[in-house]
Amino acid sequence: MAKPLVAVFLDRDGVLIEDRHYLSDPDGVALMPGARALIGRLRQAGVKLFLVTNQSGVARGMFPIEAVAAVNARIFAELGGGDFSGVAICPHHPEGSVEQYSQTCACRKPAPGMIEQFVTDFALDRAGCCMIGDKPSDVEAARAAGMCGFLFPGGNLDTWFDRVVLQEGGFSLG
C-alpha cells in the first residue's frame, strides 16, 4: 500500500531551476521542465512544500544574501505564486571569505539541519516526507533526517516524479 505524501523537500538549483552555478540574478531563473506542473499538482493535493538550498556563494563573497531572496522570489513567481510552507537557505561554507558565514554548521547539506527544523516546526511524520535533490549530499541529508531521498538526474521533473517518487518510492498523492 502506498504511503500518503505529506511533505516534499526540494533543492533549488538543478531541481526546481536550471543550475546556473552561483546564480544571483533573478533574470537568470529558468524553471526545469515540468517544475510548474509538479508544484501545482502537489499544492492541489495539499502536500507541504519546503525549499532547502545550500548557497555557499554568500559565504564566498560572490553575492549578498539578499540576492538569494530575490532569486527565490522570481522562482516562486514563475511557479505560479503561492508560497512554500518553508524556505531554508544555508549561506555557510567553512572556507568562505565572508567572516559572518565562514563556518561549519548543522544546516549545510549533507547535514540535516534545515530539514530537521521544518520537521519539528510542522510536526511532520517523516514516513510521509521525501527530499528531492540533484546531488548525493541532498539524499544524504534526507537519510540523516530519517526520510527518503531521491536523486533527480534532470529532464522533466513532473514525469520523473511520477515514475520515481510515486511508483518506485511507494508514495501517493492523497
| Helix/strand/pairing category | alpha/beta
List how many beta strands DSSP finds.
7
CATH class: Alpha Beta
Strand content: 15-25%
Low-confidence stretches: none
CATH level-4 homologous superfamily: HAD superfamily/HAD-like
Percent range for helical residues? 25-40%
Terminal Cα span: 13 Å
Return the CATH topology: Rossmann fold
Instruction: Provide the residue-averaged pLDDT.
Output: 96
* Count of spatially separate domains: 1
Principal-axis shape: globular
CATH-defined architecture: 3-Layer(aba) Sandwich
Strand order of the largest sheet: 4-3-2-5-6
Biggest sheet statistics: 5 strands, parallel
Element order, helices and strands? EEHEHHEHEHEHE
Oligomer kind: single chain
Could you describe the 3D structure shown?
The chain has one domain (3-167): Rossmann fold. It contains 6 helices and 7 strands; from the N terminus they run ββαβααβαβαβαβ. It is α/β, with parallel strands linked by helices. Strands 4-3-2-5-6 form a 5-stranded parallel sheet, sandwiched between helices. A two-stranded parallel sheet has the order 1-7. The mean pLDDT is 96.
